[in-house]
């Protein structure tokens, strides 16, 4: 896990594991939506999730192009965009895939304003 808003494309023509910016025709819209979420999240907006084992990982403005981060061939986000014209971003909300129940109220507080800002954009 991480704390970042990722946008299409997740796949790239070269299928290099990382570092390839795979721009979609709607790249500016996707960046706008990703920033709308990330800019209201107290951790995401810093661009430094500080996840264990990935302490040096950074994301400018708390967002990333999926394939630039890591290439995912055949992912749902790209499939829905290409075949259904559905604009999706992927929200990585925690370094921990399964946070303890005791941390859920904090996670809600971290994400509430982001979610409202995102819904307003939609």
From TrEMBL:
Q: Which Gene3D superfamilies match?
A: Zn peptidases
Q: Which GO terms describe its biological process?
A: peptide metabolic process; protein processing
GO CC annotations, alphabetized: extracellular space
Is Isomerase a UniProt keyword of this protein? Answer: no
- Family matches, as InterPro entries: Peptidase_M14, Peptidase_M14_domain
User: Carries keyword Protease?
Assistant: yes
> Where does the Peptidase M14 domain start and stop, copy by copy?
1-122
Name used for this protein in its record: CBPD Carboxypeptidase
Instruction: Give the positions the UniProt entry annotates as the active site.
Output: 92
What family name appears in the similarity comment?
Answer: Belongs to the peptidase M14 family.
Q: Which Pfam families match?
A: Peptidase_M14
Keywords from the UniProt entry: Carboxypeptidase, Hydrolase, Protease
Report which superkingdom the organism of origin falls in. Eukaryota
Coiled coil location? none
Q: Which organism is it from?
A: Atrichornis clamosus
